[in-house]
Amino acid sequence: MQGSVELKSMPELLSLLVDDEGEVSVELGFALDEQKLRTVTGQAKARVRQQCQRCLEPVEVELEAEFSLAVVLNEEQAKNLPRYYDPLLVEEDVVLATLVEEELILTLPAVAYHEDCSVQLSYGEDEVQQSEQDEKPNPFSVLASLKQKR
Ligand SMILES: [Zn+2]
After folding, report:
1. Is 91 within the bounds of a domain?
2. Is 142 within the bounds of a domain?
3. pLDDT by residue (tens digit) across 71-81?
4. How far is the CA of 58 from the centre of ligand 1 (A)?
5. Counting Cβ atoms within 10 Å, is residue 63 exposed (0-12), middle (13-18) or buried (19+)?
6. From ligand 1's centre to the CA of 126, what distance in Å?
7. Domain count, the chain
8. What's the gap in Å between 104 CA and the centre of ligand 1?
9. What spacing in Å lies between the alpha carbon of 62 and ligand 1's midpoint?
10. pLDDT score for 113
């Protein structure tokens, strides 16, 4: 099965992104292997936008997930799976978009930033901001002066 899924159908992934622009292309294969395990293997690719942790502007991130899953009905079956499969616990109907969404979330970088982000180079600006903060009156020094007046 090959196709594309809209990011809009992946609310959990979306909550980690700056907008819903982008599409996920998916390739899935379903099979019954030699051990009579029902397997779902495939890959998903997406180009999404996260927030750059330096300049706070959107930054494009490419996600690529590959997975090899075997359907299990309970924890016991999951434990007995060959190591090359990850368990796909099926309690109700499997929503394929959700399956793909979970795999993509696992590939999200913990921290995203532009490779050539301009903020990275301007350490001088940070120092200016810091000294401005230092000039603000400390609220505790106001309290201290109140105490002295009593
Ligand atoms: Zn940036």
Report:
1. yes
2. no
3. 999 999 999 99
4. 7
5. buried
6. 15
7. 1
8. 22
9. 16
10. 92
